[in-house]
Each structure stands twice: as structure tokens, then as C-alpha cells.
């Protein structure tokens, strides 16, 4: 896996050594030569149709395409259901190594006087107008449409459009640019024919005599078939006028050819799709950009710890006389108040518990993705893994929340446990439920079935909540975290602060550097979610994740030190909010991405975009805030433990 190995960096080579469950190779042979481990029938499966102009995906059956008489639906995992994938069998069936030319699949007829026909055709036209894309699958591999882009590069798209539209003012939209015959105003052009090329690898020298499929490509075409008994797949394109006032017959056809391609191994058959995405150089630029920020921050932190702090501690520890003690200044002055419990300690402890749960979930998911377990070939695996891990990690959430709440001298432990188990997941579920209602009203395939919603609720209340209770039980049994210095009974007055040491400017500045590390990677993640591009660079993402951890920690520690030197000891909430403010920049970037990069139209799609974005922002807020808080907590405990206090 040459390119993938580069993308997944050091750990990726491990993933080439074994087959993942459900992803073992399938062997094919010619008709009449079938054996137990080899079959001749190649089935084409269809997935949901989606568009960059709409957040609403639709099932293949929602459009009036050719249906399989004996429709089969492979079992889908939780991740596929949550992402709205709906895979079904299709009437496109081929025999291995048997070429077909212009073979009819089905005919669809539309009568303008029949309201059902009018609605079906109107929905098909809407699909072409919004550039909805088919996603076909052969042997668990996307059937790609490859075409030339600038600089002689070839781009392979794992989807192809239903058709295209020429506007009433003659503007050629989307895929209509590929054919000069698509030029009639206010006309839709349907891609009712596909030329499919299936490439295979014969393993004569590799201890398996049969063939394995390594590539499936197609070229969408538009032909106006006049005689369905004498099909030629030539001539003018299939036009559907904007005004539907006469009977219309749509004949769907296909041609298929086979090619032997022994230079492509089965294990690296996804590479040609990934290689067509020229992002690797940008990724390295992103990593270098992030590393420069990390080095800058590390240098600042090292300078403070090695020089300033070292001098401070040496000076503070040399003071013996009470006269000298009166001249104390800086962070030692607030030693009697620095561990005073924060206001709203309940909410902070709940956020920390949830943030710990999200942090461990993200770390394990990305690590497994790096090892190749959650590759694009294993559909829905990433989301399934994340949800299952989140459910099973209720115990750390309960433990951290309870232990921190006890450290804050809180006494309402029942409220703490219930809020940890229900507050943030409840907000996410409520948002998700509202989004689901919109999808359900619109008839989208992304609407989660009622049974799946019940299953998610059962996982939450049946597994996650009890595990949170177990974690909280152990957290409350532990002693509170001991602080290195005692807290005074009377709070110290905080002196007047300069503009830069006031809470808000510090919090706003604190989020800039961590966001600077991730914004390039964020562009590719948003592309994979909203522009339906494949995301596979988990090695880069894991590196950026580690860099984000370091940056959040260092930025928070740095600002925390400056505030303590200014004799402001309210650091608990500030340390959480300093790094979690990165989530606000994430939201601002998502708004910018929506208006500058996406072509989404319609109120429902806009609400869905921002609804899902808010879930991402909340998760990121908890995750980054928790990292910053614990880094700062460790730093403050460390510096006050090495200074002599009377």
C-alpha cells in the first residue's frame, strides 16, 4: 500500500499483513468453471445518492430507477445507519469475463396526465438540478468515474451524477460540460447508459489460480434510444424538457468489458482512488506549520520553566526573615488562594468527566484507524467504533467527574453523577433528534429508523449510565486530591489587572494557536463530511491530534503562569476555557466554510449543516478544555510543591 503507507506514516505497514474481518478477497472465474471458492456472478450494489448542494441523501429506491426484482440488503453496521448509507442489490448483474454491449436493464414510462408519473419525473429532475450522485459498489469497491482535471491530472470520483441541467438562460451546469451536445436551454440530460470496465488480477504465480477484481470504472453516457428492441447506444443524448407535456420513455442500458491488470495487487486496489486526491503535499505543509507552532510554544514554556521559574523558586526558598517575606511578589503571593475551590465546581467537574471520556474515545479510535482497522473499505467502521467506545467509557467519565467534584469540596454527589451521565449526551441526543425529525419529514435516507434510535437510547441508559455510576462510586470512595499548600480562610483581594491579564483577552488568545495547528486538517475533514470525499489520512490526523494535545497544554500553561504572576488566582475555569475556546474558532471556520466552499441550498439543508456542526463544536469544546485544564492543574500543583511556604 504505497500511498496509504505514506499517509499512515510509521504504523501503517502493519495493516498490510492481515485481512480484516469481512474484507477477505473474493475469487471469480468464468461461467462453467465455478468451484466452492470461486464464483462467476458479479453483482453490482447501489448505495444512497447524495449531493454537494444538499445535506439530504436519498435511497436509490426514492428515485424511479431500475429496481432489482429480488432486492437484497446486506446487513449494515451502526456507523452506516448513522451516516445514512443504504446499500441494496441492483438489476445490474454481470458474468465474469463476459463482455456485454448496450444491454437493456429496464424501461420507465411517464404520462403527463398521471399525477404519480409527474411526481416521479419531477423528483428525478430535482435530483439532476441539485447534481445528486450515484454510488455503486462492485466487490466492496466503489465504481469510480475517472476524468481529467487541470495539469494533466486524473481525478477518480467514487460517484457519478444522475444527469445534468442547462438553465433557461443557457448556462451549462455541472456534468453538462463534458459533452458539447448538452446545449439546449431549460433541458435536463439523463445519464441513462453506463460503460463499465472491470479490471482483474490473475494470481497464477501467487498460489491462487482464479481472478480477483482490482478496479471498476465507468463512464456515464446519455443516449436517446428510439427502439428498445434494436438498441445501438449511439446518437443524440436523452433530453428531458423542462416543461413535461408529452409522453416520455426512458430506457436504461449498460455495456461491460473486462481487462486483465496483473500490475495491480488486490491489497493495493484502493490506491488509484487515493492517489487521485493530490493532498499529501498540503498535509506535510500542515504538519510542518503545526510543528513550528509547537516548537515556538515549547521554547516559550521551556524558557519560563528553566529560567524564570527556576529563579523564582530559588529566590522564594532563600527568604528566611519576616521582613524579606513582606517583599514577596508574583505567583508565590497567591499560594494561600490558588487552590480555593472554583465557583460552579459542579459544572466544571461534569465537563471534565465528559471531556476525559471523549479524549480516550478519540485517542483509541484514531490509533485503530492508523493501524488500518477503520479503512474506507470497512464502511461505517469509524463511526461504529467511536459510538461503542463512547458507551463503554462511562466509567472514566464518572470517576474523573466524582474525584474532581470531591476535590472542589462538593457535597451534592447524586446531582453530580446524574449530570455527568445525562447533561452533555442529552444535549447531543436532543440536537440529533431534531435533525432526525427534519430528515424524516424530507424522506431522506439519513433519517435514522425508530428501532436504531431505541437501540442508541438502550446503549446510553443500559450501558453508559450504569458504567458512569460505577466510575462515580470509585471516584467518591477515593480521597480528594491533596494540594501542596493550604488554602487561607479569607480570600485575598486580586489587584487591578492590565488588559492582557484580564480573563477574556487571555481566553480569546489561548484558542488561536491550537486552532492554527488543525485548520488545514479541518478543511479535509469537512470536505469528507459535506463534499462526500473519502477521508483516509488517519496517520496525518493522529499526528495533528498529538500536536493539538501539546499545543493546548502549552498555551494554557503559559497563560496560566502569566495570570498567577499578576496575582490572579482564579485559574480553574480559565484554564478550561482558554484551550476550549479553540471550539469557537472551529465554529467560525465552519461558518466560513459553509459560505465560501459549499453550494448548499434550501432551509432544511442549512439547519442540518449547523445542527451537526454544533454537535462537533460541543465535543471539541469538552475535549480541548479538558486537556488544557489537566495540563494547568499539573503545572500549578508542581510549582507550588517545590516552594517553601510557612
Question: What tags apply to this protein structure?
Answer:
single chain; alpha+beta; four-stranded antiparallel beta sheet; four-stranded mixed beta sheet; 17 helices; 646 residues
Could you explain the architecture of this structure?
- The structure is a single chain.
- This protein is an alpha+beta fold and 646 residues long.
- Helices cover 47% and strands 15% of the residues.
- It has 17 helices and 19 strands.
- It has helices at residues 2-7, 78-82, 115-129, 271-275, 280-318, 322-325, 345-370, 381-392, 394-407, 413-441, 450-477, 503-510, 512-530, 538-565, 572-580, 582-596, 603-641, and strands at 27-28, 38-39, 41-46, 49-51, 54-58, 88-95, 100-110, 133-134, 136-138, 141-142, 145-148, 154-157, 160-161, 163-166, 187-190, 193-202, 211-221, 239-241, 248-260.
- Strands 6-3-9-10 form a 4-stranded antiparallel β-sheet, with no helix packed on it.
- Strand 11 (145-148) and strand 12 form a beta hairpin.
- Helix 10 (413-441) runs antiparallel to helix 11, helix 13 (512-530) packs across helix 16 (582-596) and helix 14 (538-565) packs across helix 17 (603-641).
- The longest helix is centred in the middle third of the chain and has 39 residues, at 280-318.
- The radius of gyration is 30 Å and the shape is elongated.
- The termini are far apart.
- The model is unreliable at 1-22 and 320-327 (pLDDT under 50).
- It is a multi-pass membrane protein.
- It is found in: Membrane.
- The chain crosses the membrane at residues 284-306, 350-374, 380-405, 417-441, 453-476, 507-530, 536-564, 576-595, 607-636.
- This is Transmembrane 9 superfamily member.
- Keywords: Membrane, Signal, Transmembrane, Transmembrane helix.
Amino acid at each position: 500500500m504505497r500511498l496509504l503507507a505514506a499517509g499512515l506514516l510509521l504504523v501503517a505497514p502493519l495493516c498490510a499483513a492481515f485481512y480484516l474481518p469481512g474484507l477477505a478477497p473474493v475469487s471469480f472465474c468464468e461461467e462453467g468453471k465455478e468451484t466452492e471458492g470461486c464464483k462467476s456472478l458479479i453483482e453490482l450494489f447501489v448505495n444512497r445518492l447524495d449531493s454537494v448542494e444538499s445535506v439530504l441523501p436519498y435511497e436509490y429506491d426514492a428515485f424511479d430507477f431500475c429496481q432489482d426484482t429480488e432486492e437484497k440488503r446486506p446487513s449494515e453496521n451502526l456507523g452506516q445507519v448513522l451516516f445514512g448509507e443504504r446499500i441494496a442489490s441492483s438489476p445490474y448483474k454481470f458474468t465474469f469475463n463476459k463482455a456485454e454491449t448496450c444491454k437493456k436493464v429496464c424501461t420507465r414510462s411517464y404520462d403527463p396526465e398521471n399525477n404519480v408519473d409527474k411526481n416521479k419525473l419531477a423528483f428525478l429532475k430535482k435530483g439532476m438540478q441539485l447534481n445528486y450522485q450515484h454510488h455503486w459498489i462492485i466487490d466492496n469497491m466503489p465504481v469510480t468515474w475517472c476524468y481529467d482535471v487541470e495539469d494533466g491530472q486524473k481525478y477518480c470520483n467514487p460517484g457519478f451524477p444522475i444527469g445534468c441541467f442547462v438553465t433557461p438562460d443557457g448556462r451549462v451546469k455541472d456534468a453538462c460540460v463534458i459533452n458539447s451536445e448538452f446545449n439546449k436551454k431549460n433541458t435536463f440530460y439523463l445519464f441513462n447508459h453506463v460503460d463499465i470496465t472491470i479490471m482483474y488480477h490473475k494470481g497464477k504465480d501467487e498460489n491462487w489460480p482464479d481472478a480477483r477484481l482490482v478496479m471498476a470504472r465507468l463512464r456515464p453516457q446519455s443516449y436517446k434510444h428510439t427502439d428498445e428492441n434494436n438498441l445501438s447506444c449511439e446518437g443524440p443524448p436523452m433530453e428531458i424538457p423542462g416543461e413535461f407535456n408529452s409522453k416520455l420513455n426512458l430506457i436504461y442500458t449498460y455495456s461491460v468489458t473486462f481487462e486483465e491488470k496483473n500490475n495491480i495487487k488486490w491489497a493495493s486496489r484502493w490506491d488509484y482512488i487515493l492517489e487521485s486526491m493530490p493532498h499529501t503535499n498540503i498535509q506535510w505543509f500542515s504538519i510542518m506549520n503545526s510543528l513550528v507552532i509547537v516548537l515556538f510554544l515549547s521554547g516559550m514554556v521551556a524558557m519560563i520553566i528553566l529560567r524564570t521559574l527556576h529563579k523564582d523558586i530559588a529566590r522564594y526558598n532563600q527568604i528566611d526573615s519576616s521582613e524579606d517575606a513582606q517583599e514577596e511578589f508574583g505567583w508565590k503571593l497567591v499560594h494561600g488562594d490558588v487552590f480555593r475551590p472554583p465557583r460552579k465546581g459542579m459544572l466544571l467537574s461534569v465537563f471534565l468527566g465528559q471531556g476525559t471520556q471523549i479524549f480516550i474515545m478519540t485517542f483509541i479510535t484514531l490509533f485503530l484507524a492508523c493501524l488500518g482497522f477503520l479503512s474506507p473499505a470497512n464502511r461505517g467502521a469509524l463511526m461504529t467504533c467511536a459510538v461503542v467506545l463512547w458507551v463503554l467509557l462511562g466509567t472514566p467519565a464518572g470517576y474523573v467527574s466524582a474525584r474532581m467534584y470531591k476535590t472542589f469540596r462538593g457535597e451534592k454527589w447524586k446531582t453530580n453523577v446524574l449530570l455527568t451521565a445525562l447533561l452533555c449526551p442529552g444535549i447531543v441526543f436532543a440536537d440529533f433528534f431534531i435533525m432526525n425529525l427534519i430528515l424524516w419529514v424530507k424522506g431522506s435516507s439519513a433519517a435514522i429508523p425508530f428501532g436504531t434510535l431505541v437501540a442508541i437510547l438502550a446503549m446510553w441508559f443500559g450501558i453508559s449510565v450504569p458504567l458512569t455510576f460505577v466510575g462515580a462510586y470509585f471516584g467518591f470512595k477515593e480521597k480528594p486530591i491533596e494540594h501542596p499548600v493550604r488554602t487561607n480562610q479569607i480570600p485575598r483581594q486580586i489587584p487591578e489587572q492590565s488588559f492582557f491579564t484580564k480573563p477574556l483577552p487571555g481566553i480569546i488568545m489561548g484558542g488561536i494557536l491550537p486552532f492554527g495547528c488543525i485548520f488545514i486538517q479541518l478543511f479535509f475533514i469537512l470536505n469528507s463530511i459535506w463534499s462526500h470525499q473519502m477521508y483516509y489520512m488517519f496517520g496525518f490526523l493522529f499526528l495533528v491530534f498529538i500536536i493539538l494535545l501539546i499545543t493546548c497544554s502549552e498555551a494554557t500553561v503559559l497563560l496560566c503562569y502569566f495570570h498567577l504572576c499578576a496575582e490572579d488566582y482564579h485559574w480553574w475555569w480559565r484554564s478550561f476555557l482558554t484551550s476550549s475556546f479553540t471550539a469557537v474558532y472551529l465554529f467560525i471556520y465552519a461558518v466560513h466554510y459553509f459560505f465560501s466552499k459549499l453550494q448548499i441550498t434550501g432551509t432544511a439543508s442549512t439547519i442540518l449543516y449547523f445542527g451537526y456542526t454544533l454537535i462537533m463544536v460541543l465535543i471539541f469544546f469538552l475535549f480541548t478544555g479538558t486537556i488544557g485544564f489537566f495540563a494547568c492543574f499539573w503545572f500549578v500543583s508542581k510549582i507550588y510543591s517545590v516552594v517553601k511556604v510557612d
